[in-house]
Amino acid sequence: MKYKRILLKLSGEALMGDQQYGIDPTRLEQYANEIKKVVDKGLEVAIVIGGGNIFRGMQADRIGIDRVQGDHMGMLATCINGMALQSSLEQQGVYTRLMSGIQMDKVCEPFIRRRAVRHLEKGRVVIFSAGTGSPFFTTDSAASLRAIEIEADVVLKGTRVDGIYTADPEKDPKAVKLEELSFEEVLRKDLKVMDMTAFTLCRENKLPIVVFDMNKPDNLIRLVEGANIGTTVS
Length: 234
Ligand code: UDP
Description:
Layout: E1 5-10, H1 25-39, E2 44-49, H2 67-91, E3 96-100, E4 109-110, H3 113-121, E5 125-129, H4 139-149, E6 154-159, E7 164-165, E8 177-178, E9 180-181, H5 183-188, H6 196-204, E10 209-213, H7 219-224, E11 231-233
Bound molecules: uridine-5'-diphosphate.
The site of uridine-5'-diphosphate has 25 residues, from helix 2 and helix 4.
């Protein structure tokens, strides 16, 4: 195994599958299945899940809601996704704990770093929801922050593209995939990996990021076993 403890970032949008909104049950089951494969190999797995399939703070303005309120709505959306992923993992026999950056005693534990680490040591998958718990951040930033806090070996950013490209491959046919990059190269070439806050946290703490296609079966397990998948920034 290339890593011992990973932080997997899944966007809320990915959970939509081909739908326009919400959670696609097939995609949810597929993700739980891919995660189970790495748990079964003894890897410690923490997950940060996004909320973009339900609500984003940026959308709030359009419906007359202020940004801070909207960001809180977005964070609650990540809790809904976290609960769904937790159920799906449990259905597959994986032990999980859902933690939240916003206290919500009835449905999940508050985020307490030592407790999170203990869960991981005991082989439980820990899902971090409600992002950082603060508005004006993203779940990518939450992924970097939590990864550093729990001393994860790497942030694995599961997306629907298979790495970092010179341009958006879904828009530009001339876009070329890059296999390995330094943090400095990403800055110099102005490549899109994560938002600047998330990226800076990783860079300053020397935490590698791997961007990979989470929708391709076995990609996650192959990646943690050391296969050359996605793009690594280190
Ligand atoms: N959010 C926030 N603080 C955080 C994380 C998320 O305010 O620490 C809000 C923000 O409004 C964001 C929404 O939650 O738009 C959903 O998260 P994100 O957009 O990162 O989800 P993803 O794009 O990964 O689905």
